[in-house]
């Protein structure tokens, strides 16, 4: 299989200490493309450095909703200034998280809209995190889409089937993580089984959410192969076919990966 891990955090604790070995294991498992996601401004340089060093790794710039209170100065202009880097292929991750409420909801929404504006202006895909905030996430995405189209993906999808349909209607892709392999993820499995193949991505969100049979371990990009095999069985597909389709979807959505050195 030749796979794309559409969302990982190679510079997070658990992976950063042995990044070369982590990348080697990913490549041995068939991973040929990895998107290294930024969540705080202080990470941007590190995330970019990895992407500059590794030809199969790309980067994003963004502020996670948990960090919105700590980054009131990160506006659209700041994001645009870093998005010109040839290895930056996406904006985020951004979005809304009302489960933990680590940041004020109004500030999360303001940051989210700033990221959307940067996505719209650059044409780079928006990477959306949403937890316990379906209604506000859907409303903001739709309202902002009315101001001008922008591409994007709902990462680590765990929301309702209704939210999936709304995201698809807006032209978004949906990325499935190792959570789909968990026994208690029946609703997610039902949604993942029916998502249109041409809008489907897979990810690890490493070092988090290691799929079965690695559950409880530190997640890493190599494990995207296990999620792919599980999802293929769920959908009644050959794993090679799903790997190929999701990899092609990754490069179609993150089109800058095909043009950057």
Notes on the protein architecture:
It is built from nine helices and eight strands. Strands 1-2-3-4-5-6-7-8 form an eight-stranded parallel β-sheet. The protein is of the alpha/beta class and 261 residues long.
Helix share of residues? 25-40%
Instruction: Compute the CA-based radius of gyration.
Output: 17 Å
- Count of alpha and pi helical runs: 9
Number of strands: 8
Low-confidence stretches: none
Major β-sheet, in short? 8 strands, parallel
Oligomer, anyone?
Answer: single chain
Strand order of the main beta sheet, please?
A: 1-2-3-4-5-6-7-8
Structural class given helices, strands, pairing?
alpha/beta
Mean pLDDT: 97
Task: Produce the secondary structure layout.
Blueprint: E1 3-8, H1 19-28, E2 31-36, H2 44-53, E3 57-61, H3 76-83, E4 88-97, H4 105-122, E5 126-131, H5 134-145, E6 152-154, H6 161-169, E7 173-176, H7 186-194, E8 200-202, H8 224-235, H9 239-253
Parallel strand pairs: 1-2, 2-3, 3-4, 4-5, 5-6, 6-7, 7-8
């Amino acid at each position: 299989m030749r796979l794309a891990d559409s969302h990982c955090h190679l510079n997070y604790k658990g992976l950063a200490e042995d990044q070369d070995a982590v990348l080697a294991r990913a490549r041995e498992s068939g991973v040929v493309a990895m998107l290294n996601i930024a969540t705080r401004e202080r990470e941007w340089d590190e995330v970019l450095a990895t992407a500059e060093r590794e030809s199969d790794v790309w980067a994003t710039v963004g502020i996670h909703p948990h960090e919105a209170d700590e980054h009131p100065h990160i506006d659209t202009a700041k994001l645009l200034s870093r998005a010109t880097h040839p290895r930056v292929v996406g904006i985020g991750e951004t979005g809304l998280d009302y489960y933990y409420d680590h940041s004020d909801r109004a500030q999360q929404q303001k940051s989210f809209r700033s990221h959307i504006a940067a996505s719209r202006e650059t044409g780079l895909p928006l990477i959306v995190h949403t937890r316990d905030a379906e209604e506000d996430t859907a409303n903001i995405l739709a309202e902002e889409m009315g101001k001008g189209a922008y591409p994007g993906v709902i990462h680590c999808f765990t929301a309702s089937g209704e939210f999936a349909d709304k995201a698809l209607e807006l032209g978004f892709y949906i990325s499935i993580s190792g959570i789909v392999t968990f026994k208690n993820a029946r609703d997610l499995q039902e949604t993942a089984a029916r998502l249109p193949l041409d809008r489907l991505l897979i990810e690890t969100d490493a070092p988090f959410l290691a799929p079965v049979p690695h559950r409880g371990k530190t997640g890493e990009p190599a494990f995207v192969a296990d999620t792919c095999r599980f999802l293929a069985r769920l959908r009644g597909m050959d794993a090679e076919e799903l790997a190929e389709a999701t990899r092609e979807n990754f490069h179609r959505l993150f089109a800058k990966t095909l043009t950057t050195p």
